[in-house]
Specification:
Blueprint (H helix, E strand, L loop, with lengths): L1 H26 L1 H15 L11 H33 L3 H23 L7 H29 L2 E2 L2 H20 L15 H23 L8 H10 L8 H32 L4 H25 L3 H30 L11 H15 L4 E2 L1 H19 L2
Antiparallel strand pairs: 1-2
Helix pairs in contact: 2-3, 2-9, 3-4, 3-9, 3-10, 4-9, 4-10, 4-11, 5-10, 5-11, 5-12, 5-13, 6-7, 6-11, 6-12, 7-11, 10-11, 12-13
């Protein structure tokens, strides 16, 4: 009688180990599908994405790549979030932000290198990120958070640090090119090198402030931190090397897919006569979707500081890192890069920056501020199709 009992006791850990392995495989299904999709599209060359004569095939390829990239991007954020929990704040939010911005820079770079008919793509994508994050996602977060908690509080010093750098880089990168006279049109000439160095230098200084010198500006109160710890129990957290390795693998999958996604995106805009700004908005929405979900969830859980860190950090990293990346690509490949925001988008950008400064000026928020930001977001959507 002892032998069967012993065998059952020995087989129980093995069964649990096998079940845990299968659960891990199911959780990382997106990686297999992402790499498999990349293999299919690379094995067939550009036949699946260049067939612009058949609209249905073009739409299927576009939607297929869009959904797989979105799934992989969500997995990137999931593993970045696990690393965030293990590393603590403000490093956690920084990992999440840099992972998402890495995806954005990759997609914009891939789209720029495909064809030469859209020199405004990088500008449109950066502008769309600012509008979606500062107006759409901030507005929705403040509205939902205000409806549930009436008033929410955040760290005023950290938010002001974000907004100061965002305003400086946004005006230098997206407004000033309209008023320089060394070249015709809203582009930079010799100022490009200066802008690249300024953007990277200022962002590096901000990271120094955020992570070392004044990290307390970007942290939740102790009571909120305890609440966040309990909210994260639903995540399956493993070792740091495990999450770091899978984060890199998912990023590789996104990079490979982004190069192919740029082709049907560009062809779809041309084939269906969509505005060029629509392509930038698609890239921005795809990149910000995982972070937006995380920010809204944090706000509903009354963790507004984390939501602010995610959304404002995304905008800052977008401007601070994307501008140097696209200018470098433009200088190396001799492609024209148009940065200056024009038409109705220019006053909308300045109004968004001003409203954001007023929204985050008191240390607490309510539903009214959320409604104002959502109104500006609606204007942004209107101007894409009716400039």
């Amino acid at each position: 009688m002892l032998a069967p009992v012993s065998e059952r006791n020995e087989s129980k850990p093995a069964a649990e180990s096998a079940a845990g392995f299968l659960a891990s495989m199911r959780a990382e299904l997106a990686l297999g599908i992402g790499l498999g999709t990349a293999a299919i599209f690379y094995a067939t060359g550009n036949r699946l994405v260049e067939n612009s004569t058949h609209p249905i095939g073009l739409i299927v390829a576009f939607l297929w790549l869009f959904m797989v990239i979105l799934w992989a991007a969500l997995s990137v954020v999931r593993h970045a979030d696990c690393l965030a929990i293990k590393c603590g704040e403000p490093y956690g939010t920084l990992i999440l932000t840099l992972a998402a911005i890495g995806i954005e820079v990759t997609m914009i770079s891939a789209a720029m290198l495909h064809g030469a008919n859209n020199p405004t793509l990088a500008r449109d994508a950066m502008f769309a990120v600012i509008m979606i994050a500062l107006n759409g996602l901030v507005g929705l977060s403040l509205l939902l958070g205000g409806l549930r908690h009436r008033e929410q509080h955040y760290n005023l010093q950290g938010t002001n640090s974000y907004l100061n750098v965002i305003m400086a880089l946004a005006v230098l990168g997206l407004v000033l090119p309209n008023f320089t006279t060394s070249t015709s049109g809203p582009t930079f000439s010799t100022h490009q090198i200066f802008l690249m160095i300024t953007s990277l230098g200022l962002y590096a200084i901000f990271l120094l402030i955020q992570t070392i010198r004044h990290s307390q500006y970007f942290m939740e109160s102790q009571d909120v931190v305890l609440g966040m710890a309990s909210a994260h129990h639903q995540l399956k957290i493993r070792s740091t090397p495990y999450h770091a390795l899978l984060l890199v693998l998912y990023l590789v999958a996104v990079v490979l897919l982004a190069e192919k996604f740029a082709i049907p995106l560009d062809n779809s805009i041309e084939r269906f006569g969509m505005p060029q700004a629509f392509g930038g908005a698609i890239i921005a929405a795809l990149v910000l979707a995982p972070e937006g979900l995380g920010a809204i969830h944090a706000t509903l859980s009354n963790h507004l500081q984390r939501s602010v860190n995610i959304l404002l950090g995304s905008v800052l990293a977008t401007i601070g890192l994307t501008i140097p990346a696209v200018l470098t690509i433009g200088l190396i490949t001799k492609r024209s890069v148009i940065l200056g925001v024009q038409g109705g988008n220019l006053p909308l950008l300045l109004l968004t920056l001003a409203v954001s400064l007023v929204t985050f000026a008191s240390g607490k928020t309510n539903v009214l501020q959320g409604c104002i930001h959502l109104l500006l977001f609606a204007v942004f959507l209107l101007l894409i199709f009716f400039p």
